[in-house]
Design a protein that fits this description.
It contains three helices and six strands, in the order βββαβββαα. With 166 residues, it is α+β, with helices and mostly antiparallel strands. It has a single domain (2-162), classed as Nucleoside Triphosphate Pyrophosphohydrolase. Strands 1, 2, 3, 4, 5 and 6 form a six-stranded mixed β-sheet that branches.
Length: 166
């Protein structure tokens, strides 16, 4: 079985007393549990799907660096790492190319917004990301499409409640 290691982030910012998180709408139909970093072109999804920014760890790259890079590439914002949230592990079958079964591990990090404008991304990223936007952190677990990512939003919300100094 093929193994893939990815990393992503839950980017948060507080505006007008409310915590917000960055989410993306993948441009193509996502694979199992929302991974869309294959580089393969797929048909447009029928309905809007919200996911977290994430992608494959490049050779020689550490997962936290991957998560920061993917956040910047897919959302247009620069963030800093606060804490590791958790790893999500699952198996999916590729719906493109070789149709192999893949064991996937995605490490997610809680991040704080530093700068940049949401959805101001490079034109070549539009193959992967239709749109990036801020959503209320409190609603993240309800609005995100995939079970593991819903859990990450819930953990991020719990973290900010437990750390009022943020």
């Amino acid at each position: 079985m093929v193994r893939e290691i990815s990393a992503g982030g839950v980017v948060i910012r507080k505006r007008d007393g409310t915590w917000w998180m960055a989410a993306i709408e993948p441009a193509g139909e996502p694979a199992k549990d929302g991974e869309s970093g294959s580089g393969a072109t797929r048909p447009k999804p029928k309905k809007s799907v919200l996911a977290l920014p994430k992608g494959l760890v490049d050779p020689g790259e550490k997962p936290p660096a991957t998560a920061l890079r993917e956040v910047r590439e897919e959302t247009g914002v620069i963030a800093e790492e606060i804490a590791k949230l958790a790893d999500i592990k699952y198996v999916y079958t590729r719906s493109w190319g070789d149709h192999q079964r893949v064991f996937k591990i995605v490490s997610f990090y809680l991040m704080r917004y530093v700068s940049g404008r949401i959805d101001q991304i490079a034109a070549e990223m539009r193959v992967e990301v239709a749109r990036a936007r801020w959503i209320p952190l409190e609603e993240g677990a309800k609005l995100l499409a995939y079970k593991g990512e819903k859990q990450m939003a819930k953990r991020a919300h719990e973290y900010v409640l437990e750390h009022p100094e943020l």
